[in-house]
Amino acid sequence: MNYFGTTTFWLKKMRAANRKRPAVSGKKNLAYLLFLILISLFYVLRHDISVSREPLLDTQTAMEGYGESLRMNMVSILPDTTVISKEREQLLTAIEERIVTYLYQIPDYSYINSLKTYLRLRPELLEQFPSAVPLEKGDYFVSSSYGIRSHPISGKSKKHFGIDMAAPLGKPVYASASGIVLDIVRSKKGYGTHIIIKHRFGFRTLYGHLSKILVSEGQNVEQHELIGTVGSTGSSTGHHLHYEILKNEIQIDPMSSLDLKKTIYTHLIELKPDNDGRE
Ligand SMILES: [Zn+2]
Fold first, then answer.
1. Domain residues for 96?
2. Vertex 132 angle, CA 126 and 135, to 5°
3. Is residue 266 in some structural domain?
4. pLDDT greater at residue 18 or residue 67
5. CA 107 – CA 209 distance, rounded (Å)
6. ∠257-199-187 over CA atoms, to 5°?
7. pTM of model > 0.85
8. How many Å lie between the centroid of ligand 1 and the Cα of residue 160?
């Protein structure tokens, strides 16, 4: 049979099959289509889950490698500055190609270590995720850390999802990174009067037991912007700020975030004693 013969033969066969098909076949086709879509979705999701886990380790290894090369580059004593600056630019580009994905993927602050050298060259990135202290130096002391503790009111052993920063009533509370005010809650229980701010890279911060709120929902805030004042609203036994950091919806220990910005900037000031600290 030639080409036309074959086509006509199959067309006839298909038309005959269509005539024979009862009305219910439309529903069957739809069910089959839905089944195919579900199967495809399952594979896409499964693939997504597996790829989002694998590259975190890969990216971390790569970031550590680039970070170390960058550190070596910065302390290099080679006389050829063109080669050194060219290599530095290449390393910065390689880091910048991956850093957004990396910051979205990391589950906590332990992964930031590999970025410390990069952050010394690009410290402005620290404004976009929690890296500053939400209270003024000298106003507070950490009265309760993150993790399992005996609850101050019930006495039961319970996980504390943030840190408590004891401070006098009315002391200013600042946003620890730039972001958008996601939620303002006024409650007599739990966190009492509190603010939740959404930041870049899947970070959120929560400021609890406030006496006053000085921002509104949907408002954009800068890092260090005044957002409220210390109080003792909700389940609280004294004036303090309950400070929480959530990464990809999960509460993490905020302690290592408190020194992050200070560490980077202190290092920069030490490197340039004639500089006033501003980059
Ligand atoms: Zn607390």
1. 12-121
2. 160
3. no
4. 67
5. 26
6. 90
7. no
8. 6
| 248-258: pLDDT as tens digits | 999 999 999 99
Selected residue with higher pLDDT from 276 and 102 = 102
Distance 114 CA to ligand 1 centre (A): 30
Handedness of CA 25, 29, 34, 35 (dihedral sign): positive
Statement to judge: residues 147 and 89 lie in one domain: no
Q: Which amino acid is at 16?
A: A
Residue 2 is assigned to a structural domain of this protein: no
CB-proximal residues (5 Å) to ion ligand 1: 164, 242
In a domain, 270, yes or no: no
99-119 pLDDT per residue, tens:
999 999 999 999 999 999 999
Token duo for residue 268? 């920069």
Tell me the residue type at 94.
A
Which tokens hold the place of 6?
A: 């074959």
Query: Any residues with CB less than 8 A from the CB of 258 and at least 6 apart, and which?
Result: 132, 133
Token reading at 45: 């999701």
Same domain, 116 and 188: no
Is residue 249 in a domain? yes
CA distance 54 to 241: 37
If phi > 0 it is left, if psi is from -120 to 50 it is alpha, else beta; for residue 9 that is: alpha
Instruction: Give the rounded distance of the alpha carbon of 242 from its chain centre.
Output: 20
Rg (C-alpha) for the chain, rounded Å, is: 28
CATH of the domain at 152: 2.70.70.10
CA of 165 to the centre of ligand 1 (A): 8
Q: Say if residue 4's pLDDT is above 60.
A: no
